[in-house]
Write a structure and sequence with these properties.
binds iron/sulfur cluster; mainly alpha; elongated
Length: 94
Amino acid sequence: MGIIAKPDLDTDWKDSSNCLGVDPDLFFPERGASTREAKEVCRGCIVQEDCLEYALANGEKFGIWGGMSERERRRIRRQRALERQAAARTAEAV
Ligand code: SF4
């Protein structure tokens, strides 16, 4: 993801990332291009979870973050939204 962090958010985790010094273009492949190389860098990155949560919290629409593509992150956001809706319905029913 090349870590283009918004300055007002906690991004201390980036200092421990596997992608420090790696060409940011690797994490923003052209549409349809392979994401395999970027995901290889992410594999085993000790801040993978922080990176993914940062991207989810900030609605990052492009690039590989936390080892996941835009499509994979969209799936997580949808799943979490469904879980929140289900929890809200359960809370209302009690
Ligand atoms: S998970 Fe990937 S993109 Fe995120 S900090 Fe680690 S190496 Fe970089």
